Amino acid sequence: MAEQFIRLSVRNLVEFILREGNIDNRITGNMDKDAMQQGSRIHRKIQRRMGSEYHAEVSLKKEFPCGSFILQIEGRADGIFDENGCVYVDEIKSVLKDLNFIEKPVGVHLAQAKCYAYIYAFQNKRDTIGVQMTYCHMETEEIKRFREMYTMEELEIWMTELIHQYEKWAKFQIDWKSVRNISAQKTEFPFPYRKGQRELVSSVYRSILRKKKLFIQAPTGVGKTMATIFPAVRAVGEGLGEKIFYLTAKTITRTVAEQAFQTLREQGLQYKVVTLTAKEKICFCESTECNPDACPYAKGHYDRVNDAVFDLITNVCELSREVLEAQAQKYQVCPFEMALDASLWVDAIICDYNYVFDPNAHLKRFFSEGEVGKYLFLIDEAHNLVERGREMYSAELYKEDVLSIRRLVKAEDTKLAKRLDECNKQLLELKKECENYKILDSVSHIALKLMNVMGELERYLEENQHSKKREEVLNFYFQVRAFLNIHEILDENYVIYTEMEPGGRFKLKLLCVNPAVNLQTYLEQGNGIVFFSATLLPIQYYKKLLSVETDDYAVYAESSFPLENRLILLGTDVSTKYTMRGPDMYDRFAEYILRVVHGKKGNYLVFFPSYRFMKDVYEQFQVKRGSEIECMIQSPYMDEEAREIFLETFEEERERTLVGFCVMGGIFSEGIDLTEDRLIGAMIVGTGIPQVCNDREIIKGYFDARDMSGFDYAYLYPGMNKVLQSAGRVIRTERDKGLILLLDERFQGWRYQQIFPREWTGIRRCCLEDVQNRIEQFWRGTERYERSTDKK
Can you tell me whether residue 365 is helix, strand or coil? Predict the structure, then answer.
């Protein structure tokens, strides 16, 4: 068997093994990305000043035999120079901290330099070598240096111990990978294939093999979770990928993914899977104040976390939220940070989109510049990624926020206040030219002012670690940083505009209309990318906004549901058009709901275009309903407990009919799983078309200007997606039987019907007078319709 080979950077080695102390988000290490960019410029400046004898960015690497494998440590020394016959390795660090407070080199900084010094001394057969630590203040460019001489013998003892500490981690990685791959190659699909499922599995595997993107439109109940996870696992076992990222926006779909991996483990698969939970949810404290004064788990976290992670990964395969919380309690460490560390050593990560795609929140462990990974991305509920992508790659700045921070710091920091005042004046000029909204060509002049603001904010935050105002200033700092980061990547996929909001606030926004290019930055690290959903229609819309390629694969999975188990009706005598709204129309919708539920006792959901519309119909329905009908209504600000109570009501056995009133596109219109008689009908009121607003009109104008249908991209497709998602709540398994009622005469139009799924054959038109009769016939089993692949 060939000797295994592991590559590791010097920085990753020392930061992993030698980290110590507390988590402390008050320290401006949070600003690392910007500091690194500015720091790189300062590095180059210092290197140029050092003269011709100074060799900058020297690549160094050395192999360390470790029994059954070789560990290669590599990196680039900032500089190496000879001074009076003595060779020094220079490590340059840019800091915001006052240099007077730096009395000695930071431990991990010095360790990096010592690694480079050892490798250079070993390769050049030197008995002694010097280390120079150069600290440069990012604002003043003032420099402070520390020097230390080491013998080769000292460095060798130190380096041997460092490698020894890492050796157990590397050995675990190699041994586990072998066990995992053998088991993955033997794993078989755990169920009898449903109709079309085998083809789906083959398509996923083929796309990974060919390193292509695949878009899957898969009706609910096809088994798309297992049909994507199983071939991805097999692909990893065959060396076609290193790690699976199962990405989803919903908690319920994370649970389904966890269950799929568990099912495969029951077949003999050896696979470690971590589920990442948002910091706010998994934090043990009431508020996420990540510093040793506020949180006992932050205190000494880095002294204990490596032991916690090694114990975890060597003893557990399913790293669920409950498992992570128990382990964090056992070792008294932060559960969120421990989970992120554990993610480096597992085979699959189940998490939200933002851990991969969000420029402010992505996992730097995997997606930092220069990192190359053979990742497999399985993107569930991919229809959500269009709007989430727009949010992640857009940025906004409010004039009022600039002014608020200026007032806050004016008395104590005139320098920062002056920079904020300069920025405020520029925003004031834009405000004078804006009545409703105005599209701009460029805001580079404001970005330049914001860079000055940012420098002063960083100084302020460094100098005011314990100020009561600090949190407010820090939040504003993050807004400015996000704005400047997005400004750097502006291209033809963006629209810049100003807007006077109804409440009087003045906004400057960088709107990412098409997120495909920005998503590609992260997706290009994937060997295989699968977008899947029950509602990826029309497919060209999602291809355009989620991918930059023109040769992506696409599959439409065939539904396995017996058509006679579902009735789809289209009510043609009601409308949600604004011109048609009023008490009479609300009463008509209420009557429709009443006649549907009189057709059969059971549980129903009714979906509305807005809370206001829902309330108006709900009030009419309350007058009409008898005591045999119970009602529940979604409120705008339901917390997690209230949501669970709402859904649990549908799980209970009951004598009476239950009708839930919900909002389309809300928390109950997707990602909930009410099977069999827990839900027997869904009524969709309206076409889901978003309300006209400036953002939507700007998106419409953007696509119209490119000879594409702006109305479809801005309104029709997002609206119909909400309709399809809501309708998908009814038929969840092959045993389910239920009805879907579309209530809006506009559904008769070809623009809407061309987006209907293939399996929606046999749609029947109805009116208020005959709807109850049709439904009663269906439930008696007298109405049948034939399978057809053509839409009628």
Answer: helix
Backbone angles phi, psi at 255, to 5 degrees: -65, -40
Structural tokens at position 425:
């004046």
Residue with tokens 């595997």, as numbered in its chain: 205
Spatial distance between the Cα atoms of 164 and 157, rounded to a whole number of angstroms: 11
Query: Are the beta carbons of 74 and 5 closer than 8 angstroms?
Result: no
> Is residue 276 within 8 Å of residue 247, measured between CB atoms?
no
- Cα four-point dihedral sign 642, 643, 649, 651: negative
Three-state SS for 75-138 is: EEEEEEEEECCEEEEEEEEEECCCHHHCCCCCHHHHHHHHHHHHHHHHHCCCCEEEEEEEEEEC
Q: For 524, which DSSP code? A: T
The CB-side HSE value for 120 (13 A sphere, CA atoms) comes to 29
Q: How far apart are CA 336 and CA 334, in angstroms?
A: 6
Which portions of the chain are predicted below pLDDT 50?
1, 28-37, 782-792
Q: pLDDT digits over 659-717, tens only?
A: 999 999 988 887 677 777 889 999 999 999 999 999 999 999 999 999 999 999 999 99
By the 10 Å C-beta count (0-12 exposed, 13-18 middle, 19+ buried), 691 is classed as exposed
Distances (CA, A) of 30 to 355, 358, 361, 478, 617: 17, 16, 11, 10, 49
DSSP string, 425-477: HHHHHHHHT-SSEEEES--HHHHHHHHHHHHHHHHHHHH-TT-TTHHHHHHHH
Tokens of 558: 């065939």
Q: What are phi and psi of 86, to 5 degrees?
A: -110, 130
pLDDT tens, residue by residue, 190-208: 999 988 899 999 999 999 9
CA separation, residue 194 to residues 55, 199, 217, 259, 787 (Å): 64, 10, 16, 18, 18
Tokens for 110?
């010095």
**Residue 615 burial class via C-beta count within 10 angstroms: exposed 0-12, middle 13-18, buried 19 and up:** middle
Whole-structure pTM value: 0.91
Evaluate whether 31 touches 25 at the Cβ level (below 8 Å).
Answer: no
Q: Are 672 and 729 in contact (CB under 8 A)?
A: yes
Please tell me the distance from the alpha carbon of residue 13 to that of residue 163, in angstroms, as a whole number: 9
CA distance 196 to 59: 53
What are the residues whose beta carbons fall under 8 Å from the beta carbon of 626, sequence distance 6 or more? none
Instruction: Identify the DSSP state of 193.
Output: P
pLDDT at site 760? 92
Query: In the prediction, which pLDDT does 137 show?
Result: 82
Structural tokens at position 242:
């290193």
Cα separations in angstroms, 397 against 179, 484, 511: 51, 10, 12
Tokens read off for 64: 């360390």
> What pLDDT is attached to residue 713?
98
Task: Provide the b/e sequence for 570-601 (b: ≥16 CB within 10 Å).
Answer: bbbebbbeeeeeeeebbbbbbbbbbbbbbbbb
Token pair 């006992």 in the structure block, residue: 296
Which long-range contacts does 610-616 make (Cβ < 8 Å, 24+ apart)? 610/663, 610/691, 611/636, 611/663, 613/576, 613/581, 613/586, 613/685, 613/686, 614/661, 614/662, 614/663, 616/586
Which token pair is 586? 């609300």
Determine the Cα–Cα distance for residues 210 and 226; give it in Å rounded to an integer: 21
Measured CA to CA, the distance from residue 204 to residue 232 in angstroms comes to: 7
The number of C-alpha atoms within 13 Å of 32 and in the hemisphere containing its C-beta is 10
Closest among 464, 456, 384 to 421, alpha carbons compared: 456
What is residue 781's predicted lDDT score, i.e. its pLDDT? 81
Q: What is the pLDDT of residue 461?
A: 87
Residues 444 and 490 sit within 8 Å (Cβ to Cβ) = no
Q: Residues 92, 80: contact at Cβ < 8 Å?
A: no
